[in-house]
User: What shape does this take?
Amino acid sequence: MAKSKVNSTYLLMTIPAVLLFFIFHTYPVLNGIFYSFTNWRGFGDWDFVGIRNYINVFKDTRALDAYFFTIKFAVFSTIIVNILSLTIAMGLNAAIKFKNFFRALYFFPNILSIVIIGFIFNYIFGKIIPPVAQGLGIEFLSRNILGNPDLAWFGVVIAAVWQASAFNTILYLAGLQTIPEELYEASLIDGAGKWKNFRNITFPLIAPFFTINMVVAMKGFLQAFGIIIALTNGGPGRATESISLIIYRGGLQGGEFAYQSANSVIFLIFLVTVSVLQIRFLQKREVQL
Amino acid sequence: MIGRKKTNWVITFLIGAGSLFILFPLYVLITTALKTPLELAESRLAFPVGLHFENFITAIKMTNFFNALKNSLIISVSAVSITILTNSMVAYAIARNIHRKFFKGLYFYFVSAMFIPFPIIMLPIVKQTHAMGMDNPAGIIFIYIVYGLAFNIFVYVGYIKSIPRDMEEAAIMDGASIWVLFWKVIFPLLAPMNATLVILSSLWIWNDFMLPLILLTKRTMLTLPLVQFVFRSQFTTEYNLAFASYLMALAPMIIVFIIAQRWVISGVMRGGIKQ
Amino acid sequence: MTKRTICTIFTILLIFAALPLFGAAQKESVKDKVKLEFFQNKEEAVGTFNELIAKFEAEYPNIDIEQNNVPEFATVLMTRLATNDIPAIIAMGATSDWAELAKAGYLHDFTGDPCIDKVHEGYFDQLKRQTGLNGLYGLPFAVNANTVLYNKAKFRELGLSVPKTWDEFIATAETCKAAGQTPFYLTLKDAWTGMVAFNALAANLQGDDFIDKRRTNDTTFQTRYVDVAEKMLTILKYGQDDNFGFGYDDGNTAFAKGESVMYIQGVWAIGSIQSANPDIEIGTFAMPVLNDPNKNRLVSGVDTLFALAKNTEYTKEALLFINFLLEPENAQYYIDQQKQFSAVKGAIQKDPVMEGIQVNFKKGLITGFPDHFYPAGMQVPNLVQEFLINGNVGEFLKIMDDEWDKVQQRQE
Assistant: This one.
């Protein structure tokens, strides 16, 4: 079969976007990467330092610890948020009363600003759970878990998932719309139960959305910054220091811009690798109708 | 046609129970906004003694609320609307040509940008926009549209792949150009995705703090997220005023959501696609 | 592909390209008026400065001062520097950012300007140490203080008087504990609050040449900070049950409601405490770190200094404004409103709450914040917090030395 020519309309639809994107996004990225080979502080004079910044990142145990924490946090949060969002989306898609009201309500956490979320969860973990736990005799919850270096990360997971779930729920809801009613009806006639419905109809057909959600969630949690600042600021000690937090604090407030740029580049490579692997793995499972 | 479905009460109950996790913070948010600092110190949970609506008035004055609201609206509405019109078009072109190397490459090029951490581009983009005279609302709108490409293409392409080609093929046979085909056939079919991305883009842009912070240099250009900081001095946060302000800032987003979410479930989808 | 389509696409592109022009900044050409930007970092001081600016502009009608206060001061300052958009007049803390600005040559050197006579020279030393330069690149305006706040009513109740030595200090805490009251409400969930005590201890125990010697690797934290670390652990013993579960806001409220007898915080917390409980009687004293009462120094740092961009067009007018702010009556107005201490001669903080530390200012028993001299990228607060949790002195001091070396090396 001869290769057909690309319809030039398609090219016209895309080329301008590509050019603009290159100018306003790719070029700054290249710029930023360039600076990671210098010792620029964001202002003033600078010199080339080659790969010294990169070597320093690998020597920086604080950064390496941050990578461990970030990965642990992101994996857990991604799994939990996807299970939760899909469940909620299915619930919101079912024949429930006050559908629109609930949809608006479940959307709510995502529009709240970080300050509010920090305020609320700090309060819950600090002043609500401990007294209740003490009353019930649950030892490890009797103090603010955000003050416990071993448990703090879990508190952050809860808050992060709470906030992020609305985003994923919306995406799953959209995905659920693509499944035709008839399939469920046919399956009903065949006498299939709810779980079978899910496994054989729902889940395969929303596969593209599953991929999107997993990738987006993972990427978002790996870059977690605001929620951590709001809840623990990287503490207790360094227990919840994420990569983004280290980069921001060191780079913007610590005047170590070039060094943290190198950190960012390494982080970028890491993110891209994880996501590409994720996409390839998950897309193999997608069903094309 | 199947008649009205019976309400599934079990799920309704579960959803209702789950919503407590959201209603509780909402309660804290609203009651805090109506308290005085003294009452707040007393108890964060108690119902306010008097309803101090004056917190809202104070908040409006302190943040120059309506000016910031105007700025946020202009930026968000412009950016979101142009984004939907343009990004969908680019995604369509890519989706329908994904089998070709060039377009596949474009896909990965755009999508990979989602993973670029902001600190890398932060200072370079500031320098660039300043040099090009774009450190103003128009410039920032532009940046939002371009930066949105990464995520939006990712999502749109995923969705478009599931639209069968028969309608397009039929239209082409009728002599329609691709351009017409896109606007008359595809774009309407994208309604649920358009609505979804309207919601998600609005969310991002409305609440975005970083880009306005570093790109907008004049005080009169400040957007809502930036003016919220007027309540946070170096060592204290006036929570009651801050929350009053947030509540007011939330309102437009809620409206957007309520309107847009109907389209996410638009009936056009069901019948039209999976014949 | 019709011509029409091409035209449409082209138009769209044009609109895109032209968008920036719509917003092109309109340079204001106001003749005869000098416009100066006053970039100020404290949100809570905006109102006070507005009043002072109005007063100034009444006196000098041809000078227009525009106060600009934004969130995330450090970030914005950095991005503005990247575009060479340096504000003419800056009011900020004596932080490492400021020191970096000075070192990079962006700031005006005040040496020789008449206005420096209005300020207590004692602070110049601190500032020069920070930048490591000989010139004076910032004029101190307001200074803060790390204190120990105490509930006067409770002190009377328990028959306590203000401790003057470390031993008395701990004895006071013991008395509180024995009486079933919490001596200190610790807010160690917010790592930075631990630095209040840390700085007070370090300032008095590290030896005045510590920073210089550490910079040349002639001494280490492991050598000089053992006592500091151990005393921190002692304080921990006198906190409330969940030292790490509560943060700054909780602490202010708790202390205000009488949940502890003393509270280790800076003067900046007073306002917040009073708004939670206007009836509370607060007293202050400098943490008595040493057993010689005459040697205990209060940690006081420059909270606000004025800096001037070197290359501004209107240096003369800017100096007029700074001069104005340094007038005793204006400086007094500022500290009365902001509850701070002044670096300006003739402006005295008279608030009865701060009586307890005025003596330090009078006698000159003041010293700077040690952590302001550490390399900026070190991110110390979390390290201290971590130490307080696991209590391992040796490990902590080694980490401090390692991090110092690492950051210093990265910045060469």
